Amino acid sequence: MKILGIDPGLAIVGYGLIDYKMPRFTTLSYGAVTTPAGTSTPKRLEMIYNGIEEIIKLYRPDELAIEELFFNTNRTTAIEVAEARGVILLCAQNNGVRIFEYTPLQVKQAVVGYGKAEKKQVILMVKTLLKLEKTPKLDDTADALAIAICHAHTGCSKIRDYFNN
User: Fold this and answer.
1) Rounded distance between C-alpha atoms, residue 56 and residue 96, angstroms
2) C-alpha distance from residue 62 to each of 3, 67, 72 (Å)
3) Alpha-carbon distance 20 to 63, whole Å?
């Protein structure tokens, strides 16, 4: 099963694409869709949609796993991330990709085994589980790969298939 993990943002959308055949992972691609500061929000959202759609059309993922929003103190940033996230969800929906959502706590629990793990621990586990030679440059990319791994560990279970039939 091909899983596209997404860490949403307005300036940087991290993505990680893995193929999961229990119990093995194959890393297919990872990186980021970036939008330049100073560009209007509608234009940035269009760039995000187009960038994610390009990835979907190129790799044809079976499912998309995306991080749910965690509201911190900066409401302006949260609104911008929510807008970007909405565009990503629309893109997946328009392209027939099934969507699954996970909280940061769920991702850390699935990848590290501890829901309050530090970012460094998550990145190290992503590198280890996917047998990457180097750590992904951007935290957003490592987070997207972690979200894909989380979905592979939790969303791809036989139990889910049993209840969906």
Assistant:
1) 10
2) 6, 17, 31
3) 11
Q: What share of the chain is helix, strand, coil (3-state, %, to 5)?
A: 50, 20, 30
Closest CA relative to residue 148, chosen from 55, 20, 57, 10: 20
Tens of pLDDT, residue by residue over 33-42, are 999 999 999 9
Beta bridge partners of 100: 65
Report whether 55 contacts 16 (CB < 8 A). no
As a whole-number percent, the residues of the chain with pLDDT over 90 amount to: 71
CA 98 to chain centre: 13
The tokens for 84 are 């970007």
Of 94, 67, 64, nearest to 2 by C-alpha is 64
Measuring CA to CA, how many Å separate 57 from each of 76, 93, 107, 109? 32, 13, 26, 31
Known catalytic residues? 7, 67, 140
Residue 129 has pLDDT above 70, yes or no: yes
How long, in residues, is the chain?
A: 165
